[in-house]
Amino acid sequence: MIKIDKLHKTYNEVEALKDISLNVEKGEMFGIIGPDGAGKTTIIRILCGLINSTSGDAFLMNKNVKEERSLIQKDIGYLSQIFSLYGDLTIDENIEFFANIHNILDYHERRDELLTFTNLIRFRDRLGNNLSGGMKQKLSLACSLIHKPKILFLDEPTTGVDPVSRRDFWKILANLKKEGITIVLTTPYLDEAERCTRVAFVNEGELLDVGTPSELKAKIKGEVLELVSSDIKKSERILKENFDFDIQLFGDRINIVLNNFENDFKNIESVLSANSINVIEKRIITPTLENLFINMIKQVN
User: Fold this and answer.
1) Which pTM value belongs to this model?
2) What distance, in Å, lies between the first and last C-alpha atoms of the chain?
3) What does the pLDDT look like over 12-46, one tens digit per residue?
4) Top-level CATH class of 223-300?
5) In 12-76, which ranges are continuous DSSP H helix?
6) Is there a contact between 37 and 204 (Cβ–Cβ < 8 Å)?
7) Thinking of the domain 2-217, which architecture would CATH place it in?
8) How far is CA 63 from the centre of its chain?
9) What is the rounded CA–CA span in Å between residue 269 and residue 235?
10) What is the pLDDT of residues 102-149, one digit of tens each?
11) What beta strand segments (E) does 177-267 contain?
12) How many whole angstroms separate alpha carbon 291 and alpha carbon 241?
C-alpha cells in the first residue's frame, strides 16, 4: 500500500529526513516511533501530500504522491497532532462539513455509524469547543473516516489524552484494522507501539530498524534486570556513575540491561550497599521496546 524510497527532506540546513526507505503492507497497523524531532510528522505530511520531499519518492496504492496527489487524497484520511476542526460547530456539523469537502452527499447513515462506533452519538449536538481532549480526537477520527479511506494516517493521536480515552481510542483502531483499513501512526509512547503489526524506529531523521515488536525485542543483547531499592533516584545516579550498562528509570523501579546476571548483579548490589542503599526487589523481565530503543540510540551515539 505504501512504498517510501530514499526519502530525504531538508528545512534550510536542517536534515529532517535522511534517505528513509520502507514499505507498508495492506491491512497493517504500522507504527513510526521516535522522540520529538525524530522526523515522524515530516514522514506523515509527505505521505499525505501536504509537503514535498527534497528528494526521493513516496508511493501510495502504486501512485506517486508528487504526481498524483489529488487522486491519492481521495483515498486517505489524516488526523493531525492538533485538534483542527471547528469549535463553533457541533459534532454533527463538523462531520457534515468534512462530508461536503469529499463531495459525499448521502453521508447521514455513515455519520451515525461513526458516531456509534466512537461513542459520540449522545453528544452529537455538543460544540467542538466543549469537548474533552479524548472526545476531540474521536471526532477528528470520525471526520477522517467519513469518506471511507483505504489508508488512515494518525499523527500522535493520543498525545495529551487521558488514560481511559487513550484505551478507548486503541479499541477503535483495533476494530478499524479488522475492517481492512491500513493504518499508519506516529507515537512517542513505546507501549502503544507494542500494539502495531510492525514498527519503524526513527531518530534524528534516520531509520534505525523495522520489524514486528517481537522481532525487534529479540535483538536486544543481554538480560533486563528490574530493580527496586530503598532510594531509587540515588540508585540511578550511583549506577550511572559506576557502570556502563543501559540504565532506565521507570517510576519507582530501574531497568538495567546486563551482560550476565550472575556476575553483574553482584557488582551492582555491592556498589549500592557501599552507598547505604538496599535492594528491595529484583527480577529478570522481558525486554520492552523502550529498552531496545534506548539501547539502539546509545549504540548510534
Assistant:
1) 0.84
2) 33
3) 889 999 999 999 999 999 999 988 889 999 999 99
4) alpha beta
5) 40-47, 69-73
6) yes
7) 3-Layer(aba) Sandwich (3.40)
8) 25
9) 10
10) 888 889 999 999 999 888 999 999 999 999 888 888 898 899 988 989
11) 182-187, 198-203, 206-211, 223-229, 246-250, 253-258
12) 19
